[in-house]
Design brief:
By secondary structure, the protein is α/β, with parallel strands linked by helices. It has helices spanning about 10-20, 45-60, 100-110, 150-155, 215-225, 240-250, 265-270, 290-295, 310, 325-330, 340-350, 355-365, 380-390; strands at about 30-35, 65-70, 80, 115-120, 135-140, 160-165, 180, 200-205, 230-235, 255-260, 275-280, 300-305, 320.
């Protein structure tokens, strides 16, 4: 028994044991903490905020009590705690994002005892805040981890419980406190399956940046004789790269069309009509959400073997994994040999929001500080008793094959 805590009465202990054995019938109180750069879900570009939205909505659908900390223009069926008026990237009056994220951390601090689990998606900013409650927190690593400045950070904050979005991330922080790996997922019916593409073009979707190699996408399309459509945003930091390298390449090739940044509705048609998605990344890609979005449409992916790619794509089924430009060009005519129904089936088997939420729930329940953990303190187990009087929540059927690694 934990020192300093009075023993529970026998009837309460029995009730607590019964409750802990039946916790899958009780809602968890979950805080989802999103970056403020985009709304949840984003109007345009924004992979992290999009995943936070899909996870939040699926957890609510399964009956959990979810609170979302996000920008005030976010759209959610969870309880929303607005931490700024609108998404920071789309607010022309915002010059510095840090004050708004600190405001959000203060909102969280005031409510910290309201939650069984606090799930952070904001990189490292919250680490000093949660030292004494880190055992009921989770931080998903959405970004690149090969940066040298992260090693000394995690040498200090080594107990921070982390989740990777692919196993490829682990090698950059081998001594971090990894508690699982959860692949991203999107709603099963979000994007339409199209067995027969009608566009006759290759697609590039995302952002114009050196590490995304839109120049390689252009070269692959031109050398293979296929039209290319580029739907991408240009951040201020990449404006020089756009003006000096990519824009001249587009203007030099009439078969290459720059569409710009597109919304969710346009994305569905853009991906579904494409013969294939080009994903010629040249960096340790953390996940690559656009790959599974394409797969949901039945659109195969031609991707370079970087970061997450071998873990997400099934070579020869959902697309082709290549190592060189020559291999990428050679893969283009082979895409017609792929069965788009099998591409879609790979998505449904591995990358739905239902599966993603199920994997996270398993990790939430194993968090040592959560009252849902069998080894949690008597005090936290006792908190269950007051809640157990409420009717049990019926959860959705178990999701398909899990991607979680504990």
């Amino acid at each position: 028994m934990q020192e300093g805590l009075a023993p529970l009465p026998a009837d309460c202990r029995r009730a607590a044991t019964r409750t802990l054995a039946q916790l899958k019938g009780l809602p968890m109180r979950i805080a989802q903490i999103a970056p403020l750069y985009e709304r949840v879900p984003p109007k345009l570009y924004g992979g992290t905020e999009r995943i936070v939205s899909y996870l939040t909505e699926e957890l609510v659908r399964q009956g959990h009590d979810v609170t979302l900390f996000a920008s005030g223009d976010s759209k959610t069926s969870a309880k929303l705690v607005p931490c700024c008026e609108i998404a920071l990237r789309l607010n022309p009056s915002v010059r510095d994002a840090l004050p708004y994220h600190v405001i959000m951390l203060e909102q969280i601090r005031r409510r910290v005892d309201d939650f069984d689990i606090l799930h952070f998606h904001i990189d490292i900013l919250h680490a000093p805040l949660i030292g004494n409650i880190s055992d009921r927190t989770l931080t998903t690593q959405h970004g690149r981890l090969d940066l040298p400045d992260l090693a000394p950070f995690y040498a200090v904050f080594g107990e921070l419980p982390l989740v990777a979005v692919t196993s490829a991330q682990h090698k950059y922080l081998r001594h971090a406190n990894w508690v699982g790996t959860v692949h991203h997922g999107i709603p099963r019916d979000l994007l339409p399956f199209r067995p027969n593409p009608t566009g006759g073009y290759l697609a590039f979707l995302g952002r114009i940046a050196p590490e995304k190699r839109p120049d390689h996408a252009i070269e692959i399309a031109v050398r293979s004789g296929m039209p290319l459509k580029i739907a991408a945003k240009v951040d201020r930091v990449d404006q020089v790269y756009w003006e000096s390298e990519i824009r001249p390449m587009i203007e030099a090739h009439p078969s290459v069309e720059f569409i710009g940044e597109i919304d969710e509705d346009d994305k569905a048609d853009f991906l579904a009509a494409a013969e294939a998605l080009l994903f010629p990344v040249d960096w340790p890609e953390p996940f690559g959400l656009v790959m599974i979005e394409a797969m949901a449409c039945g659109t195969p992916v031609i991707a370079f073997r970087r970061g997450s790619v071998p873990e997400v794509l099934e070579d020869g089924t959902s697309g082709f994994i290549v190592d060189t430009l020559e291999q990428a060009v050679a893969a283009v005519p082979r895409i017609t040999h792929l069965d788009r129904a099998k591409v879609r089936a790979s998505f449904e088997r591995r990358f739905t929001a239902e599966r993603m939420a199920g994997d996270y729930l398993k990790i939430y329940e194993l968090a040592p500080g959560s009252e849902f953990h069998a080894g949690s303190s008597a005090a936290r187990q006792g908190e269950v008793l007051a809640r157990s009087a409420r009717p049990a929540v019926e959860l959705a059927p178990a999701a398909e094959t899990s991607a979680v690694r504990l």
